Amino acid sequence: MADTATPVWDDTTLKTGTAVGKGLFFLDLDPPDDIKDDDDLATWIADLRDYFPQIQIRLKPEVAAAAKAGVKERLELAKKEAEEEQARHRKTMRELRDYAETHQGKIRTHETLHDALDAYRQWIERTFVDVEGRTTQTGKKQGERAVRIKKYAKDMPLSEFETPQIESIIEFWRTRPRKPPTKKKPGGPYAFTLCKHTIRLFKHFLRWLHKEPTFPWKKPGDLDLGPILVVRDTEIKYKVETYSKEEVRILWQHASHFERRLLLLTLNCGFSISEIGSLDWQEVEGQYIKGLRPKTKVYGEFKMWDITRETFGTPPRGRADYAFLQHIVASLKPKTGRCSILFPHGVLFRDEEQAMREKLIEADKVECVLGLGPNLFYGSPMEACILICRANKPKERRGKVLFINAVNEVTRERSQSFLKPDQLDRILQAYRGFADVDGFCRVATLDEIRANRANLNIPLYVRQASVGREFPADDLRKTIAEWRASSQQIRLSFDGLVAILEGKVATEDRDTQ
Fold first, then answer.
1. Is the domain of 376 the same as that of 462?
2. Which domain holds residue 54?
3. For residue 322, what are the CA distances in angstroms to 314, 325, 342, 355, 453?
């Protein structure tokens, strides 16, 4: 088959296949005699490397240089041809545009309005980029508006896109079209600001299209792009409630610690409830709150007043428990939010975190402190506690905290500790009942906790019930006397044992001598 017009195997491919079969990593080859110029040489070596990618084909230095030069010439030729084609296309577009202008734009081309809007959106995404080349939030928002214009605009050839069609699109958005209805909301009119920004973007699109060389369209001479008055709502949609300084002073005077924090964030930084709810402790750096706005994702820095910074408190170095707790509490839904967090017992009473505990207590978010027994968690024999917080306590539980001492509610079998169903049920019933149970749980008021300097250590509030039976006074004296007699007997027995051992040691010494 090597002698046919198009051989499957020739001398070169046989040598290469043999080298591959031997496991060689490279092979030195000379080009065949029918190679006429550098271009043929570059094609031959490229095909050979394509057929045998697992081995490196090496040529003599002068032959390799010629092949490289051939490849470079081919690339330069292709680049030159592409530039010539692009220049020819632009020239054609200019001629078409000039011809269209001469004949009042009546020439029909294959470019349409939707094609131009798609090209405009792509131009926006390429233009509005950050330092890493990614489209910014502004670029994405502008691109969404361009897509919205395309959605409602009828497609047409650009030769038919004249003043009446342009004014029709502007009038459509000026009168605020209705949004398509959804399952949750009926289709009301688009917002005033959305229509205003959409018209502004459409005007910019017309100016861009007028200058873009790849589209044969020019702005009509009779088109007036002056100010456009968008239709406003007949009624005030949102009535902003305002307060005087005296009213703010009264609110501050009667607000809880948590409510004061919300008030300060609103007055200091202008935060809404969504921004406060999504505020992360990691965004608080010194006197500033730094982060992205939740809706627009625009980065911002807000300098806090000293009094605002004080309401947050500062977790001590090496103690991230309360930073973690603050983040969770701040993320709760205002009306229905509830969380339970597993902590070591140290968070309940460590002195360096007292100030933060006081603020947490004043905010009245702690609903229950549950103490658990030891060895319930693999890899840690220590006792743990569960802190249950609630964003909006029921009225009957406000100003109170339930302490449950379930340290003894542990069952240990076969080197494993766990809670039986009846133990779990007792804890659950105590939480639901929210009442005192002697030796097991107790409801403490915030005043009691303040008196203990915000110490949440469970034994301060729940005293364990006495274990065993009570002894009368006479039985107690008798028991003490028996214990003393037994101790004396043990002491005498020990002395006798020591004497016996000393005598045995002495006998062994004599035998040794």
1. yes
2. 12-88
3. 9, 5, 12, 11, 17
Q: How large is the greatest C-alpha to C-alpha distance in the chain, in angstroms?
A: 140
Return the higher-pLDDT residue of 84 and 507: 84
> Which of 21-35, 394-408, 493-507 has the highest mean predicted lDDT (pLDDT)?
394-408
Tens-digit pLDDT profile for residues 442-455? 999 999 999 998 89
Residue 103 has pLDDT above 60, yes or no: no
Residue range 441-489, pLDDT digits in tens: 999 999 999 999 889 999 999 987 554 445 455 566 777 777 777 777 7
Percentage with pLDDT > 90 across the chain: 22
Give the SS3 label for residue 454: coil
- The structure tokens listed for 71 are 């490849």
User: Looking at the domain assignment, is residue 199 inside a domain?
Assistant: yes
Tokens representing 420 are 């039986």
Domain-located, residue 97: no
Mean pLDDT (whole number) for 209-234: 85
Looking at residue 467, what is its pLDDT? 47
The three state secondary structure string of 417-438 is EECCHHHHHHHHHHHHHCCCEC
Same domain as 489, residue 342: yes
Position 244 scores a pLDDT of: 85
Whether residue 393 is found in the same domain as residue 262 = no
Selection from 257, 273, 298 nearest residue 454 by Cα:
257
Which one has a higher pLDDT value, 268 or 315? Answer: 268
Identify the domain boundary among 44, 66, 88.
88
The helix or strand, by DSSP H or E, that contains position 2, with its residue range, turns out to be none
Q: Classify 340 as helix, strand or coil.
A: strand
**DSSP letter for each residue of 257-319:** HHHHHHHHHHHHH---HHHHHT--GGGEETTEEEEE-TTT--EEEEEPPHHHHHHH--PPTT-
State whether 131 and 172 are in the same domain. yes
- Mean model confidence pLDDT for the chain: 79
Same domain, 303 and 190: no
Separation CA 261–CA 362 (nearest Å):
11
Helix H or strand E encompassing 328: helix 321-330
Please check whether residues 308 and 341 belong to one and the same domain.
Answer: no
In a domain, 103, yes or no: no
Helix axes 192-211, 137-152, angle to 10 degrees: 90
Dist. CA 489–CA 317, nearest whole Å? 57
Q: For the chain, how many residues are written? A: 513
Query: Considering 44, 71, 88, which residue would you say is the last residue of a domain?
Result: 88
Helix (H, G, I), strand (E, B) or coil at 367: strand
In the structure encoding, which two tokens stand for residue 26, read together? 């490279």
Counted domains in the chain: 4
Instruction: Write down the pLDDT at residue 468.
Output: 47
Mean per-residue pLDDT, 214-235: 84
Q: Are residues 139 and 182 in the same domain?
A: yes
Write phi, then psi, for 419 (nearest 5 degrees): -105, 130
Residues 302, 183: one domain?
no
Specify if 3 maps to a domain: no
